Amino acid sequence: MEVTNVQEKEYRILVINPGSTSTKIGVFDNEKDILEKTIRHDADKINSFENIIDQYEFRKEMILETLDEEGINISKLSAVCGRGGLLRPIEGGTYAVNEAMLEDLRIGFSGQHASNLGGIIAFEIASGLNIPSFIVDPVVVDELEPLARISGFSLIERKSIFHALNQKAVARRVAKQIGKRYEDLNLIVTHMGGGITVGAHKNGKVIDVNNGLTGDGPFSPERAGTVPAGDLIDLCFSGEYYRDEIMKKLVGQGGLVGYLGTNDAVQVEKMIAEGDEKAKYIYDAMAYQIAKEIGSASAVLDGKVDAIILTGGLAYGKDFVAGISRKINWIADVIIHPGENELQALAEGALRVLQGEEEVKMYPGSVKDKTIV
Description:
Oligomer: single chain
Helix content: 25-40%
Number of helices: 12
Order of helices and strands: EEEHHEEHHEHEEEHHHHHEHEHE
Shape: globular
Strand content: 15-25%
Strand order of the largest sheet: 3-2-1-4-6-5-12
């Protein structure tokens, strides 16, 4: 019997992840990484722009120059995928960049952030090549169940702001490893980095998750997470702090920074190894709060949990991860996926659409679409 080898079509995808002072880019042939590069931007140059959105032309040119220097022929690209920014709340998935999305990115519909540049730059490069441009699972992914939105205070609704890109990418990889579809599993995914978010994933939807930016959940290397509301109100009206000072103490100067003066987990682990009892006490408290949040997520899933995934930079800490696992491994098997490969996640999201595994989604808005798909 003659066996014919059918070669999988190869797609070359450029991915773009803008940060505050750098732009990370990658080029992938299907899932194979052929280039990863971090383009550092001069602080004076970045600060010379009045608004973040004004940086897009400057960053686009630096990306194109870098690709040329690395010998990448952009005419061979099949698609360009950018990091999703602060858009309207949308369900997870891969979205074609359209005029409605571009408008919301430019005005900063949900806030100004360097990630807003991802979709704009992707569209600018792709439209010149007559190829599609995408974003994948931005931080505003909102799949919360109605009950999860209730805060207990009628003037405030709980929001879904979390590490959607990494959480969903890792969930899909674990599903593949165990031979099942992401959409058929109940998972608890914990992203542990500068911010910490714990998501309850039910059949491919994140039905509950803590707001890891300015909201609730465990404290992290630089964020305070949930704090006693009454005490916080007293502090706000004490006359000792301005609003911005309080916000910085919650986000940026909270968590490990507030207690230990550093957001570097490696440094904290070194302090612990050298006998610093306070460092161990605070680090153990962070692990304790993460485990408690995971326990809450298991209740959301009615105790029916196929696996618990620990990911992000903190997942490299073996003792830290072990401390969490001891408290939760009775719920389900704990799978460790350290780090966060956002470039790979972006490429995988675009590839699923290009290969027909997933249908591209259209961003909602009132502006007529001018999308290349």
